[in-house]
Design brief:
Number of strands: 12
Number of domains: 4
Shape: elongated
CATH architecture of the largest domain: 3-Layer(aba) Sandwich
Radius of gyration: 29 Å
Strand content: 5-15%
Number of helices: 25
CATH class of the largest domain: Alpha Beta
Structural class: mainly alpha
């Protein structure tokens, strides 16, 4: 029987590819610190978003794969860059005028506009931790401010000062002439205003560990680079953090590829080894444009996804094709729900060698729950649509006719899906439903389908699907998908739907016949006209 390590060596899923790359980077050895360190970063000038979830979820998947492959101890750090100066006021917070008066100050020195914490950063950090805890992530939280002020970064900051020229030679060629003239990898905190200053360094003393800067009022001051008196500029800061914490793995969006490259060069200039990491693609909106906080085109939040589907389905979405740009819009949710159910169904019957490549192995840390649901989310959506009811009890009545053993108290996952289906129908399907009258060909075919359904109460979904196929063929629909499109548009007011045989089975033969009668009646025609 194969060991977990042997299974991991042959696994094809991308988290295992990443784990093997990391293993190669570490030469298969456990670092001297006693664990392999994974990191995710977060800018607390805004609230956690769906990209934050995606990065932590994907990193956790790689971490789990690495543990399975090597048996080594690991740790995940969620790092908050809360010493960064506030560049602009976010558009989704109260008391914006108050924040305006504190621009350029470290986020931990800005009052909380929500009035609940000691600073704006503390508020958003608390939201981040609550957010991560809600999904059961295993992590250690680190604050940039605390790391700088406690001296945890001091040794590396002094090394950065000694390699000042090396850092400048790496960064300056990437900047324009104007920015090049004012750039410094160290950003001093003004002793007068408390702002993080974007000013060039005038003098430096590596032996003393100090730099000289000019404050906003023109006065010069000398300051240590240690103890929280300076913060490092973005790319240099990332490199400094990798070295100071001895980070082994951190992934980043493709838009940060240049930053990863430059920060890695700085790490090497310090004589250290940059972390391994995945460069993942960004999400696309409904039009195919890349989603960006600056563009304001982020339609789906984590909370909005969870109104329509379980967290596991969001994890599945994040698992699939991380190196491919994917649409992240509400219409991807039903597919994600049904794909999650399909993967769960497969898992129990798979060999262990195949289970490690099943997404649910990575979503549930190798131990996915048992799955007893055989009703798709697409089918539930159409059940809600056809029944014209958003009452879960009514919907469960149909489900119990289909399967007398079904029970919302026992089949908890199915009951959750029913609730999600009601929400999704209410928000997205009902407002867009548009029935149309049947053509003469479609009218004849629908009447024939109604007649053939008589006395088929105990027919299987497959048998009912065969009847639907036969009616379409006998009435000359070419291609046959035009027949199914007609069924959905005339009976359900939608352009697509599930396998209609399965729909008939759960909705009921008699109810389906009545649905056809209403669509063919004069009353039905007037209702859709």
């Amino acid at each position: 029987m194969s060991t977990p390590e042997q299974l991991a060596e042959n696994a094809k899923a991308w988290p295992f590819d990443e784990a093997r790359r990391l293993q190669k980077r570490l030469r298969g050895e456990l670092p001297a610190k006693g664990y392999v360190l994974f990191e995710t970063g977060y800018g607390p000038s805004g609230l956690p978003h769906i990209g934050t979830f995606g990065e932590v979820a994907r990193t956790t998947m790689v971490r789990q794969a690495y543990e399975t492959l090597t048996g080594h101890a690991t740790k995940l750090i969620a790092f908050s860059d809360d010493m960064d100066g506030l560049r602009k006021v976010p558009g989704n917070v109260p008391n914006a005028d108050m924040l305006e008066a504190h621009l350029e100050k470290p986020l931990t020195q800005i009052p909380d506009p929500f009035g609940t914490h000691e600073s704006f950063a503390h508020h958003n950090n608390a939201r981040l931790r609550s957010f991560l805890d809600e999904f059961g992530f295993d992590y250690e939280f680190l604050s940039s401010t605390e790391c700088y002020q406690s001296g945890r970064f001091d040794e590396t900051l002094l090394a950065m000062l000694r390699h000042y020229d090396d850092v400048m030679s790496i960064i300056l060629p990437t900047l324009g002439p104007e920015r090049r003239a004012t750039y410094s990898p160290f950003l001093p905190v003004s002793p007068k205003t408390g702002k993080v200053l974007q000013v060039p360094s005038l003098e430096r003393d590596a032996a003393a560990g100090t730099l000289v800067f000019e404050d906003e009022d023109g006065s010069k001051f000398e300051t240590p680079v240690t103890g929280g008196h300076c913060k490092m500029q973005w790319k240099a800061d990332w490199a400094m953090r990798w070295v100071a914490l001895d980070v082994d793995y951190e992934m980043a969006g493709k838009d940060l590829s240049e930053s990863v490259s430059l920060s890695s060069k700085i790490v090497k200039a310090l004589g250290a080894r940059p972390p391994a990491g995945l460069s993942y693609e960004l999400f696309l909106d409904e039009t195919g444009a890349k989603i960006s906080k600056s563009k304001g085109n982020e339609a789906i939040t984590v909370d909005s996804w969870l109104r329509y589907a379980a967290p596991e389905t969001l994890s599945l979405y994040m698992f699939q094709k991380p190196k491919t740009a994917k649409r992240l819009y509400f219409d991807v949710i039903p597919k994600a729900v049904d794909e999650y159910g399909t993967f769960l169904d497969k898992f129990a019957d798979q060999d262990t060698s195949d289970q490690v490549d099943n997404p649910v192995w990575h979503i549930h840390h190798g131990k996915p729950p048992e799955h007893d649901v055989r009703i798709s989310f697409a089918l539930l959506l159409n059940l809600v649509s056809a029944s014209n009811s958003e009452d879960k009890d009514v919907l469960w009545g149909f489900i119990k006719q289909y399967d007398p053993h079904a029970d919302p108290k026992v089949h908890v996952w199915l009951d959750r899906m029913v609730g999600y289906a009601v929400n999704y129908y209410h928000d997205f399907i009902r407002p867009t439903k548009k029935y149309r009258a049947p053509t003469d060909q479609e009218r004849a075919a629908l009447a024939d389908l109604r007649d053939r359904l008589q006395y088929k109460d105990n027919a299987t979904p497959e048998d009912l699907q065969s009847i639907v196929y036969a009616v379409g063929k006998d009435h000359g629909f070419e291609p046959l998908r035009d027949w199914f499109k007609a069924i959905y548009e005339v009976l359900l007011g939608q352009q697509q739907g599930p396998r209609f045989g399965s729909f008939i089975a759960i909705y009921g033969v008699g109810q389906t016949a009545a649905l056809i009668d209403r669509a063919l009646s004069e009353e039905g025609l007037s209702a859709v006209g």
